[in-house]
């Protein structure tokens, strides 16, 4: 398996080693040694929990910027529905769409169609699925990676259906290269993303194929530009660009965790948001419970994609706006229904390749040695204070014991076992900004 | 003769639904730590969970022992419970003696023992009415092979 790319980077020049990220990481993938945070790449699932908590703003998402798009001849925006709930109550999706065009995109894709298509495909798959149940949604890349890393036995329960943004990317390339006589690689399909995780899923899809999309721009990256155009530049936005399907209320399915699969029966379908709750439910699934549930729709961010870490508006305000927009939308026009029907009959929505458990940096140890290592870790843990203070640079005493047993670090990093460690920490963390330190 | 690499015993408290499932969760953590095959872990966890639930539902107390060798994992579950009068009947899918209360909690659909057998490579039950039940399950490490 190729080395894993991650959706964010830690800037060592900015990192002050304050351990907020280490404590926030749900998979215990961060260590802070010598006053700097670093990642154990195999354990990271790109959830972005570390991104928002860093007090030094040292962690940033690897998304692309508008300037990166100049190499393409034709640029198409595939906007997450979450985008439309970020602005004022009276800013319509059509206006936001026009602002995207004004910003330099050549077209805004009618993404609602792809969302509806995948909705139908999923409903079909669930009906025909022979088991094991429940099926688990694959639209949130963090959930997919969580399963690959921590619940490998559940990979066969991931939906075998391609996600809507990939379906959109595929058709963007096909349609515009045909219509404009361009090569597919000259057409850019750019996802406007509510989180860095989807950006990384484009760089390196979990099923190890090449993404149809060419990159992702974070909502927060273009928020100000769009807001400016909505407020100051209303003339251009009211120009006679034809209104597309962007006015359809169906645009909002995907961002709304409750509304993703309206065709599945309520009692057999659980929508889950937030990693902690998702992990609790996955634990139950692994024990063989919940097999009466057909489908788990899982979004790692609390509140679903509207709560993504590259959104700007607070989740609850955004949700209220999404509901408001939905309530005021006309029902989908016949063109929408026709387009969905046409494409559903001709396209394949199955995933191109199956998702496999992520093989950890498998050490060459045989089982006997692994058992020994585990016993060693248990013995080491007995000598630690179990306070999880984190001063050794690992998030918990158990992680420190495991690190020592795997020879990743020295046991003497524990301040309870070594006075030298306290002196060392005092030197690293002496008061004042890092620039004034020796 | 294969060498025993690891042996862990756990006490199961009967009628404690609140804690039910904790032992199988702990076993899962151990087996994941040991980087065993995902399919094998899944089977062991299902068997351990069903066994744990049976003790919690019917017995006063019990013990679950996990034994790892370089070829397989064995689970031995011994309880002090009412015993099973007719084991063949108990092994039938859908047969259940669970109370309505247990069913309301989502347990006791008569799938426990059959499900354990389905997920084991070797499986046997011994029981004496009024004394208790012992269940033995063996799962090979190369589950999919």
Textual characterization of the structure:
The complex is a heterodimer of chains A (438) and B (145). With 438 residues, chain A is an alpha/beta fold. Chain A folds into three domains: 61 residues, 2-Layer Sandwich (Alpha-Beta Plaits); 204 residues, Rossmann fold (3-Layer(aba) Sandwich); 61 residues, Electron transport complex subunit B, putative Fe-S cluster (3-methyladenine DNA Glycosylase II, Chain A, domain 3), CATH 1.10.15. Chain A contains 15 helices and eleven strands. In chain A, the strands form four sheets. Chain A has a four-stranded parallel sheet with strand order 6-5-8-9. In chain A, strands 7-11-10 form a three-stranded parallel sheet, with helices on one face. A two-stranded antiparallel ribbon of chain A has the order 1-4. In chain A, strand 5, helix 3 and strand 6 form a beta-alpha-beta unit. In chain A, helix 4 packs across helix 12. The longest helix of chain A has 18 residues. The radius of gyration of chain A is 24 Å and the shape is globular. The two termini of chain A are 42 Å apart. In chain A, 43% of the residues are buried. Chain B is α+β, with helices and mostly antiparallel strands and 145 residues long. Chain B has one domain: Heat Shock Protein 90. Helices cover 34% and strands 30% of the residues of chain B. Chain B is built from five helices and five strands. In chain B, strands 1-2-3-5-4 form a five-stranded antiparallel sheet, covered by helices on one side. Chain B is globular and about 40 Å long. Chain B starts with a strand and ends in a 5-residue tail after the last strand.
Secondary structure elements and their pairing?
The complex is a heterodimer of chains A (438) and B (145).
Chain A lengths: L7 E3 L9 H5 L5 E4 L2 E4 L9 H5 L5 E3 L12 E6 L13 H10 L4 E2 L2 H18 L6 E2 L4 H10 L13 H17 L6 E7 L2 H8 L11 E4 H14 L1 H4 L31 E5 L1 H12 L8 E5 L15 H13 L6 H13 L20 H16 L14 H9 L13 H10 L10
Parallel strand pairs in A: 5-6, 5-8, 7-11, 8-9, 10-11
Antiparallel strand pairs in A: 1-4, 2-3
Helix pairs in contact in A: 3-8, 4-6, 4-12, 13-14
Chain B lengths: L3 E10 L8 H12 L4 H21 L2 E9 L2 E9 L6 H4 L9 H5 L7 H7 L3 E7 L3 E9 L5
Antiparallel strand pairs in B: 1-2, 2-3, 3-5, 4-5
Helix pairs in contact in B: 1-2, 2-5
């Amino acid at each position: 398996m190729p080395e894993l790319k991650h959706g964010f980077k830690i800037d060592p020049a900015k990192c002050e080693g304050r351990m907020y990220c280490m404590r926030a990481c749900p998979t215990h993938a961060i260590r802070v040694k010598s006053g700097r945070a670093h990642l154990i790449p195999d354990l990271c699932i790109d959830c972005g929990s570390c991104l928002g908590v860093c007090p030094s703003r040292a962690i940033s998402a690897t998304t692309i910027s508008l300037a990166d798009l100049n190499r393409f001849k034709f640029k198409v925006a595939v906007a997450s529905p979450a985008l439309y709930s970020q602005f004022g109550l009276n800013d319509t999706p059509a206006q936001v769409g026009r602002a995207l065009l004004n910003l330099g995109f050549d077209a805004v894709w009618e993404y609602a169609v792809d969302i509806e298509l995948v909705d139908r495909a999923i409903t079909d798959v669930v009906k025909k699925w022979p088991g094991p149940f429940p099926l688990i949604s694959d639209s949130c890349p963090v959930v997919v990676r969580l399963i690959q890393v921590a619940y490998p036995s559940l990979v066969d329960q991931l939906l075998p259906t391609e996600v809507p943004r990939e379906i959109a990317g595929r058709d963007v390339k096909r349609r515009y290269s045909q219509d404009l006589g361009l090569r597919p690689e000259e057409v850019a399909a750019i996802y406007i993303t509510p989180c860095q995780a989807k950006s990384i899923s484009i760089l390196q899809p979990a099923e190890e194929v090449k993404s149809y999309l060419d990159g992702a721009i974070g909502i927060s990256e273009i928020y100000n530009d769009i807001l400016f155009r909505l407020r100051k530049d209303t003339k251009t936005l009211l120009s006679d660009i034809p209104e597309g399907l962007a006015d359809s209320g169906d645009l909002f399915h995907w961002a709304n965790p409750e509304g993703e699969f309206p065709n599945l029966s309520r009692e057999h379908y659980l929508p889950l948001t937030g990693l902690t709750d998702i992990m609790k439910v996955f634990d139950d699934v692994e024990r063989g419970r919940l097999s009466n549930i057909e489908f788990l729709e899982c979004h790692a961010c609390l509140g679903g994609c509207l709560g993504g870490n590259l959104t700007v508006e607070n989740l609850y305000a955004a949700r209220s706006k999404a509901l408001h927009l939905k309530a005021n939308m006309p029902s989908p026009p016949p063109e929408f229904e026709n387009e969905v029907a046409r494409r559903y009959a001709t396209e394949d929505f199955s995933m191109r390749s199956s998702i496999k458990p992520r093989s950890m940096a498998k050490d060459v140890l045989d089982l006997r040695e692994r058992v020994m290592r585990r016993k060693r870790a248990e013995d080491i843990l007995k000598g630690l204070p179990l306070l999880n203070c984190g001063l050794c640079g690992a998030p918990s005493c158990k992680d420190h014991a495991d690190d020592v047993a795997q020879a990743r670090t020295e046991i003497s990093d524990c301040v309870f076992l070594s006075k030298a460690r306290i002196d060392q920490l005092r030197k690293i963390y002496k008061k004042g900004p890092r620039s004034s330190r020796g | 003769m294969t060498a025993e690499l690891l042996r862990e015993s756990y006490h199961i408290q009967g009628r404690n639904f609140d804690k039910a499932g904790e032992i199988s969760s702990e076993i899962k953590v151990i087996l994941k730590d040991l980087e065993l095959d995902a399919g094998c872990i899944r089977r062991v966890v299902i068997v351990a969970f069903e066994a744990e639930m049976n003790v919690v539902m019917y017995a006063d107390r019990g013990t679950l022992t996990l034994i790892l060798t370089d070829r397989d994992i064995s689970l031995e579950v011994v309880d002090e419970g009412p015993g099973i009068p007719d084991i063949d009947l108990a092994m039938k899918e859908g047969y259940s003696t669970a109370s309505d209360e247990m069913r309301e909690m989502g347990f006791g659909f008569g799938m426990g023992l059959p499900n354990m057998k389905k997920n084991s490579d070797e499986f046997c039950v011994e029981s004496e009415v009024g004394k208790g039940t012992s269940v033995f399950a063996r799962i090979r490490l190369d589950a999919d092979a």
